[in-house]
Amino acid sequence: MYKKLFHLVLLFLICGSLRAQAAVILQYHHVSETLPAVTSVSANTFTKHLNYLKEHNFNVIPLNELISALKQGKALDDKTLAITFDDGYNNNYEQAAPILEKFGYPYTIFVNPKLIDEQAGYVMGWDKLRELAKKGALIANHSAEHNYLHKKRENETQSQWRERTKNDILSSQQRIKEEIGHDYKYLAYPYGEFNNQLQALVTELGFIGIGQHSGAVNQHSNISRLPRFPASGFYSKLDTLITKLNSTAFTINKLTYKDSVTTQNPPSLTINLETDDFHKSQFACYVSSIGQANLNWLNDNTVEVTSPKQLNKGRSRFNCTAPSIKKAGSYYWFSQPWVIN
Fold this sequence. Notes:
The chain has 341 residues and is of the alpha/beta class. It has helices at 2-20, 43-55, 63-72, 90-103, 113-117, 126-134, 158-179, 196-204, 238-245; strands spanning 23-28, 30-31, 40-41, 59-60, 80-86, 108-111, 138-141, 186-188, 208-210, 229-230, 252-256, 261-262, 268-273, 284-287, 291-292, 294-299, 302-306, 314-323, 331-340. The chain is built from 9 helices and 19 strands. The longest helix is centred in the middle third of the chain and has 22 residues, at 158-179. Keywords: Signal.
């Protein structure tokens, strides 16, 4: 009897530990009611998001603590979350920062140093960023001027692209270090777009690559393509955001695809993953603007995901989910971004 009880307690602790090592990163752009709705959230809605986090005991931590824990395989408290903003718009200073300060929540702003140096009127200057940094905000790299980092220029060779992109990333990092003092080697990919070559370069430079595709993160996540849940525009609705806030990360052993920026259309994806905490019959993937994807289970742990139709040109996604058996109300969530050329 005691032996059975011991095993039950051990199983409970193991399951709890596995669940607790998942976290969510939120991505915002504008906090404004006058700028494009597709990338904006009103101050009122943003406050509702933070109220939900507070009322439901989310552990909102700085991004550097979250990433450090992922890299070291350390356990994270249940409901761990980090808040990020892309581009460093003035309304982050005027609208978002005061609200975040009231809640006492840390956050990260990814900025474009060249645009700041050129005094682009729509982004914060270094003085405002320094002020926010002194209050606890982390300032990190979003490339020099928000160009598509994976794209080659006309007649540019691979080595020329590589050197130019390397200089972009490192010079931007140096400007942040000079002006703010921060040297967090995190790169939020402009437009959330990356390909295999850019991921390899980012890794070689010792950076963490961060996208805009949805999903939770855990110690098994690929740190050259960490996902974030967009929480602006259409994605700002709290009733749908709640599901994402309470999501968890699949344990993916291997992810196989040609490239996320590709001419292959429709693209295909093969996922080898742990399947012990969801029913395979409830695993489903959806294709942007198309609907349910085709699934072909190659064995107990490996599934091939394909689209029933060609994807539209430009950005698209496969979103895969499954309800957790052990954690009622929690969904596993994985997203594969595509750019179809």
